[in-house]
Amino acid sequence: xxxxxxxxxxxxxxxxxxxxxxxxxxxxxxxxxxxxxxxxxxxxxxxxxxxxxxxxxxxxxxxxxxxxxxxxxxxxxxxxxxxxxxxxxxxxxxxxxxxxxxxxxxxxxxxxxxxxxxxxxxxxxx
Length: 126
Ligand SMILES: Nc1ncnc2c1ncn2[C@@H]1O[C@H](COP(=O)(O)OP(=O)(O)OP(=O)(O)O)[C@@H](O)[C@H]1O
Ligand SMILES: [Mg+2]
What we know:
Elements: E1 2-4, H1 11-22, H2 26-46, E2 57-65, E3 68-75, H3 97-104, E4 109-114, E5 117-125
Antiparallel strand pairs: 1-2, 2-3, 3-5, 4-5
Bound molecules: adenosine-5'-triphosphate (ATP) and magnesium ion (MG).
Magnesium ion binds at residues 38, 41-42, 97.
């Protein structure tokens, strides 16, 4: 699914993913949806997809193999930032999203740059 980064925000892809996973992947649904929300929010907030003057898109790709679900979130990339775990700081008000994703995925996440932007991927389930 591809959504306009500033037009629809997180609600529509969240519902779309929850509905998709309800059939066959209910056991990983909560974790996968939570992680996807973090990754999509990051795409909107930190990549050029969320440019206020020239908004782009975020594309969510989902695949399942056995009991594992893989979710990829493609954005327009960004020249100055890349997805990385923030330094741990108990008093920080941000920098928690990727830590959450790291824990829930058991470290099975990453990002890669391609010709058409950047992909953040993660896996949920066995
Ligand atoms: N899709 C992305 N494109 C570019 N930079 C990213 C992307 N996702 C994350 N980052 C970078 O990685 C940092 C850590 O991301 P993380 O989600 O952990 O924290 P946050 O988004 O800053 O705050 P929070 O998720 O707690 O609201 C971000 O501050 C940003 O610099
Ligand atoms: Mg975040």
